[in-house]
């Protein structure tokens, strides 16, 4: 698998049609809204994982990042956030995240998550704005368990379930 991640662009339009995921909303977002949200509406930036295989290029997975704030009262379950002031906590939202069902179970989800988190940490270290959280919304229990392996904590018990990761310990570890 010759895999690389790049920002979604018009050159990927032909690849979007073939993407398949068990959650119809994730497939629909990629095929109908992701490009518009990236280029015209400026609501989220989507990154695609392109697999350059013997049969040609295929879109193997994607993720979208945007901004978010989490009410301080909602983050009460996260011990490292307890001492923060009582106003919304800024973060980056992993708004969409999906792997083509034909390549699930091969480690691509972990790879894409690491890519999304890595880009977020890079922005947190040297970007023009400050933020504290990496946030996502798990669609179901399986997705929540996946995110928990990376240290994200649930803020609720119903689905979709908001989950957060405090970036400060990761940033402190990288700069130390």
Structural commentary:
The chain has 176 residues and is an alpha+beta fold. The protein has five helices and seven strands, in the order E-H-H-E-E-E-H-E-H-E-E-H. It has helices spanning 13-16, 24-39, 108-126, 141-148, 168-175, and strands spanning 2-7, 45-53, 56-70, 89-99, 133-138, 153-154, 161-166. Strands 1-2-3-4-5-7-6 form a seven-stranded mixed beta sheet. Strand 2 and strand 3 (56-70) form a beta hairpin. The longest helix is centred in the middle third of the chain and has 19 residues, at 108-126. It is globular and about 55 Å long.
List keywords for this structure.
single chain, 176 residues, alpha+beta, seven-stranded mixed sheet, 31% helix, globular
Gist of the model:
The chain is α+β, with helices and mostly antiparallel strands. It has helices at 13-16, 24-39, 108-126, 141-148, 168-175; strands at 2-7, 45-53, 56-70, 89-99, 133-138, 153-154, 161-166.
What order do the helices and strands come in, and which of them pair?
Layout: E1 2-7, H1 13-16, H2 24-39, E2 45-53, E3 56-70, E4 89-99, H3 108-126, E5 133-138, H4 141-148, E6 153-154, E7 161-166, H5 168-175
Parallel strand pairs: 4-5
Antiparallel strand pairs: 1-2, 2-3, 3-4, 5-7, 6-7
